[in-house]
Amino acid sequence: MGLTKSLGKELAKTGIAVNAITPATAKTPILDGLTPEFIEYMLVRIPRDRFAELTEIAAMTAWLLSEENSFTTASTFDLSGGRTTY
């Protein structure tokens, strides 16, 4: 987050935006290789009570790259379902 803030400010006048996305665990095939106990261990820590969907992460990424978001830089976008506590 510190690098995002620092680099975002440094490059702001160049037209280059620097932002970060901090997703929670996402629903991907990697979960198939984990034990049900470990999956539950991760899931109970997400207040939304579910994993992120890849489409949600893709939508946030697309918006960050869009002209609709041409003003934002040096920001962190939390996709943790409420888990992040920084």
Features:
alpha+beta; elongated; Rossmann fold; 86 residues; 2 strands; single chain; 3 helices
Walk me through this protein's architecture.
There is one protein chain. With 86 residues, the chain is α+β, with helices and mostly antiparallel strands. The protein has a single domain (2-79), classed as Rossmann fold (3-Layer(aba) Sandwich). 35% of the residues lie in helices and 12% in strands. It contains 3 helices and 2 strands; from the N terminus they run αβααβ. The protein has helices at 2-11, 36-43, 54-65, and strands spanning 19-23, 75-79.
Give the topology.
Elements: H1 2-11, E1 19-23, H2 36-43, H3 54-65, E2 75-79
Parallel strand pairs: 1-2
Summarize the structure.
The protein has 86 residues and is of the alpha+beta class. The protein is 35% helix and 12% strand.
Rg, Cα atoms, Å: 15 Å
- By DSSP (H or I, 4+ residues per run), the number of helices equals 3
Q: Strand percentage, roughly?
A: 5-15%
Overall CATH class: Alpha Beta
Biggest sheet overview: 2 strands, parallel
Q: What's the name of the CATH homologous superfamily?
A: NAD(P)-binding Rossmann-like Domain
Question: Class by helix and strand content?
Answer: alpha+beta
One letter per element, helices H and strands E, the order comes to HEHHE
